[in-house]
Design a protein that fits this description.
alpha/beta; 6-stranded mixed sheet; 10 strands; 32% helix; binds adenosine-5'-diphosphate; ABC transporter ATP-binding protein/permease
């Protein structure tokens, strides 16, 4: 599950003003695609098209062979988890923030969820020791801590497809590296799209595409692109 394809995708917010041009992508299930490029290149737009936040002008986007126009919004939401750049948290506990919107979760579920499986691996790795702070209120979290909570929240949904839309771009490079390395360690097997403006953000990717002014100008492996700088 989680095979994403773009076939000759064109999109513009306004008629006659194309933002994405002739985008072809093939992201096999369980692999990681990195989309790198300068601000304004169209990276976030590309991510939003995947969950039909906007409808494309022409071309086709499929998930597991199905045109996303034929898939209900609910199943798209279930299939795709997104972590945005800036996370606004509720002034509540880490557990509450992680479980928010996960229907039917009670206090115990929330605590369990926050400690559960991959998420616990994510949280407990941190030197701050989140596992013991899951129920604490009024936390003052750093930007990096907030993004960790946001990622844990998205992983709790266990979507086949995970999109990190500049999820670590606002952080210092050390914190960014720590988060990306943790994710890389626990996230094998999930189709992942990492959007970043710096190539250095990419710890691991099966393929990298460089987007500039709405076009793919380069694509290759991590080693290929690092070799070119
Ligand atoms: P990136 O993520 O690479 O920084 P975006 O996808 O955010 O790029 O933006 C690509 C282009 O689309 C930019 O020129 C931006 O101004 C424009 N754009 C983004 N969102 C909207 C919108 N909601 N309405 C109109 N134009 C938009
Ligand atoms: P859930 O639907 O389980 O609460 P998410 O928290 O991942 O899952 O996202 C909820 C919805 O919010 C998404 O399906 C999407 O429509 C919207 N959303 C999330 N992140 C973004 C984003 N960066 N830009 C635009 N919309 C977003």
């Amino acid at each position: 599950r989680g095979h994403v394809r773009f076939e000759a995708v064109e999109f513009g917010y306004d008629a006659g003003q194309p933002i994405l041009k002739g985008i072809d992508l093939d992201v096999p299930p369980g692999t990681t695609l990195a989309v790198v490029g300068p601000s304004g290149a169209g990276k976030s737009t590309l991510a939003r098209l995947m969950y039909r936040f906007y409808d494309i002008g022409s071309g086709r986007i499929t998930i597991d062979g199905q045109d996303i126009r034929a898939v209900t919004q609910d199943s798209l939401r279930a299939a795709i988890g997104i972590v945005p750049q800036d996370t606004v948290l509720f002034n509540d506990t880490i557990g509450y923030n992680i479980a928010y919107g996960r229907e039917g979760a009670g206090e115990a579920d929330i605590a369990a969820a926050a400690r559960g499986a991959a998420i616990a691996g994510f949280i407990e790795r941190q030197p701050e020791g989140y596992a013991t702070r899951v129920g604490e209120r009024g936390l003052k979290l750093s930007g990096g801590e907030k993004q960790r909570v946001a990622i844990a929240r998205t992983l709790l949904k266990n979507p086949p497809i995970l999109i990190l839309d500049e999820a670590t771009s606002a952080l210092d490079s050390r914190t960014e590296a720590e988060i990306m390395e943790t994710l890389e360690a626990i996230e094998r097997g999930r189709t992942t799209v990492v959007i970043a403006h710096r190539l250095s953000t990419i710890v691991h990717a099966d393929q990298i595409v460089v987007l500039e002014a709405g076009r793919v100008v380069e694509r290759g492996s991590h080693a290929d692109l690092l070799a070119h700088g």
